[in-house]
Amino acid sequence: MKLNSSPNSVPDTLMHKNIDTHGTNNDLEATLTRNLYYKEQVTNTPAEYYYHVGDVSFDGYRDGILVDAKGEGLLKFIETNWTASVYGNGGLVDGALRRLEVVRNAGATTPIHWHIAEHAAFKHLSNLQTDGYFPSRICLVDSPPDYRNYPTHRPAPGQLRPSIMRWRLTMKRQALGDPISEGRRVWEWIQRVRYLHPSMALWLPTSNSHQESEQAPPIDLDLLLHRIHQTQTVSRFPEFGLTPTFCGQIGQGNKLMLTFNMPNLGHASVELMIGSALGNALDASEDLADALMHTTAELFGPNIIGGLSRNNHPTRNLDRDGPAPFNYSDGWKMFFASDSPHYQRATQLATRTVPVANGAIFTFGTPDTYPTILNQW
């Protein structure tokens, strides 16, 4: 299907009225109503319309760019509303890949922009994208809502809560086998880290609600492998991911995300999105940070790159500064493989170096100063 590139115009043949649950009912919740206003703000078209390409609908089309408006609730979906398939069929990554696929199949090179209302959600997705967990061909745009132009349902002061994620641990590796065998390595990692801090002692399966999580038995190896297999089966693409389990207080704990074949075939990654209890402990104990990094690097070798970073630092301005030379998120503690082209420079800048597995863990100053040190790269 040919895409029209004339500025701010949407061909009638490609513009369809939205007949899903985003209708104009008077009973819509305030958040959904604000998101409809936000969609109009982003697309400059009525909220009940969307732009259709193949079997995928986009929120709009402006100045030769396909746009989607990600309003309030995206952060909550990413951080607390976990399901086994959140990064599988119908999840964020699969949806993004489908959008890229349908544009490519249409014979077009039209860019896709995701406008994100919540800065914390934008920052989190940007980090995921930088580290290869989210497709780099989706352009993420930090677009705060202009509530002054919303006639109703403006949020009360303090209603929009900031991210609960305090820290994040990531490690990208070359997979040694198929996703199921890699899942067994993940299970072994869980057994090792659960003794490092009380918030990591009990691991539960992710579910659709807090109530389901409270009633669920602890996750076991069979369920973990089943969720990996299930997500791989329903995914339309070789690259897939899932959030199969979490630990700590429900809604405020630590969420585990796994990805496979991202950003390249044969790669696998693990990310622990760290909540308040473990985050506070990391603030207070470098020994705990070292143990968490060392255990992860040792178990998942051969690793490529990894890091432990705190969430309160500004996101790198890619338009102004470009990506980091090592093409990964900055970290207070980072792992580089010994054959990495960045290993020598990391050695020069690090305040401490500890060999482990097929490389070393480098510490760059303190949790407050590491961005300044890494800016010297």
UniProtKB/TrEMBL annotation:
Chain positions covered by the region annotation Disordered: 1-21
Protein name, as recorded: Tox-REase-5 domain-containing protein
Chain ranges of the Tox-REase-5 domain: 37-118
Compositional bias segments (type: Polar residues): 1-11
InterPro entries referenced in this protein's UniProt entry, alphabetically: Tox-REase-5_dom
